[in-house]
Specification:
The protein has about 450 residues and is mainly β. It has one domain (about 25-460). It contains 2 helices and 31 strands. The chain has helices at about 60-65, 190, and strands at about 25, 50, 55, 70, 75-80, 135-140, 150, 165-170, 170-175, 195-200, 205, 215-220, 225-230, 255, 265, 285, 295, 310-315, 320-325, 330-335, 355, 360-365, 365-370, 380-385, 390-400, 420, 425, 440, 450, 455, 460. The strands form 14 sheets. It has a 3-stranded antiparallel β-sheet with strand order 1-10-11. Strands 19-18-21 form a 3-stranded antiparallel β-sheet, with no helix packed on it. A hairpin with a 2-residue loop joins strand 8 (about 165-170) and strand 9. It is globular, with a radius of gyration of 21 Å. The two termini are about 40 Å apart.
Length: about 450
């Protein structure tokens, strides 16, 4: 639905519109995508088309589906099958996404490769008990309600693979999934989040700086006594009229500065290091003299990761620059793996107060750094190209249920959000970690543009 710059015609039920205040309870939010008109399943993102509406039946099969079922690429519960013999078909391509649902495991670890009983399974490989895993590894659910995978005991986040954090879950401290953004209930936080559940209904984790959080989240102290956690800035707000400031920490945290076409929440800061972090090479957030994080000049709106369709506007003061309203100014068609052009025609006259919707499958996508990773349901994979240089950057793309090595048609089919040449893979650039039967392999014949955060881009093959 198009938005008014003045927000007077805003819809109250937007993504990220949660309760007032941010009190942290011990205890993950996965936001639900907005319904969109459709004619076929391919018109939907990680959903299926039912009587003209995109619907989602499942996200996590352990929580949403019958025992033994998986959550398919169209977000429907599917009965057990021999996934190793299936053929997803489709064009071979590469793109990446984070977090997400686990596929049913088998004796080989889920990817059809034999397991060496003497050495055990490496980190991230599905498992049934500690004995399945390599020495010093544990077999634990990486998130509440998820299937178990081999993981490490830890003392610091640096001990963990990308996308996981060193967390104390129950009586143990090990590398668990970063479930920031997963939906939760404060009343049952311990059953739904690895660390904390906010009063707004999403999981979060502790942090030292914004670099520890997914893009779109800043790091700040909340509650009494104050606890530094990742706080969501990807949410719309208005200090007058709908939707109000309930998604923010209060009216003072609603950014309606002249550069913002649609008002968005922000977080507090003592320095820019507290603010959300974009991919290396993109213009950074700054910390204002008022102690609030401010978006860079190329960002004009707060629409969160996964919002579809995108919304576009002709930016003032010239009203000639067509821009999207995504929180990170990035967008991607998750279904077809391309970057759609802006809608055309678009009314750029100063008298037009309304935004224009993009293609139905064009969604907002956040860039990412490996340290902060991505919000729940997405994984950080460096398949993006930055400007004319073509430099790789990480993008947060959706995840699915197929293990590394299994057939895929798009990134959203895969547990680790990366489909490469028709088989599921994983971006292992930062940690070298691959599941049993696959090896972390650097890009062949690299050029200067194949380095990500100073490291040569690598994937599990």
């Amino acid at each position: 639905m198009p938005f008014s710059r003045a927000m007077s015609r805003r819809v109250a039920g937007l993504l990220g519109l949660l309760g007032a205040g941010l009190l942290v309870a011990l205890g993950p939010t996965s936001g639900c995508a907005r319904a969109a008109d459709c004619k076929r399943n391919s018109d939907c993102i990680r959903a299926y088309c039912d009587d003209g509406t995109c619907r989602v039946d499942c996200v996590d099969p352990k929580l949403d589906c019958p025992r033994g079922y998986t959550c398919g690429p169209t977000a429907q519960c599917e009965p057990p099958t021999d996934a190793s013999t299936s053929d997803a078909g489709g064009d071979a391509h590469e793109a990446g996404g984070a977090g997400g649902a686990d596929a049913a495991t088998d004796a080989s670890g889920g990817d059809g490769a034999p397991i060496d009983a003497a050495t055990g399974r490496p980190a991230l490989t599905p498992c049934a008990s500690d004995g399945d895993c390599a020495a010093s590894l544990l077999c634990r659910p990486l998130a509440k309600g998820a299937a178990s995978r081999c993981t490490r005991a830890c003392a610091l986040d640096a001990d963990c693979t990308s996308g996981t954090r060193c967390l104390t879950v129950g009586a143990e401290t090990y590398c668990a999934a970063s479930d920031v953004g997963r939906a939760c209930s404060p009343a049952s936080a311990a059953a739904s989040c690895n660390a904390y559940c906010t009063q707004q209904g999403y999981c979060t984790v502790g942090c030292q700086s914004g670099a520890d959080c997914p893009n779109g989240y800043g790091c700040m102290g909340v509650g009494t006594p104050s606890t530094r956690v990742c706080v969501r800035a990807e949410a719309t707000c208005s200090t007058a009229g709908s939707p109000g400031t309930a998604a923010c920490l209060g009216a003072a945290f609603c950014d309606e500065s002249a550069s913002m076409i649609v008002g968005g929440c922000t977080t507090g800061c003592a320095s820019a290091s507290d603010c959300p972090r974009r991919a290396a090479g993109l213009s950074p957030w700054t910390c204002g003299a008022d102690g609030l994080c401010r978006r860079p000049a190329d960002v004009f709106g707060p629409l969160p990761q996964g919002w579809a369709p995108t919304e576009w506007f002709c930016a003032p003061p010239s009203f000639t620059q067509v821009v999207d309203l995504c929180s990170d100014a990035q967008h991607l068609d998750f279904v077809h793996g391309n970057i759609p052009p802006p809608p055309s025609p678009i009314d750029c006259s100063p008298s037009n107060p309304m935004t224009t919707s993009g293609a139905s499958t064009d969604a907002c996508v956040d860039s990412c750094r490996y340290q902060g990773g991505c919000a729940w349901g997405y994984a950080c994979s460096a398949i993006g190209a930055l400007g004319a240089s073509g430099q790789r950057i990480g993008l947060c793309l959706p995840t699915g249920g197929a293990e590394i090595g299994l057939a895929c048609a798009r990134d959203g089919d895969c547990v680790f959000g990366l489909c490469y040449q028709g088989r599921c893979s994983r971006d292992c650039t930062a940690d070298g970690a691959c599941t049993a039967g696959s090896t972390c392999t650097a890009v062949a014949s690299p050029t200067a543009t194949d380095y990500v955060e100073g490291q040569l881009y690598s994937r599990c093959l």
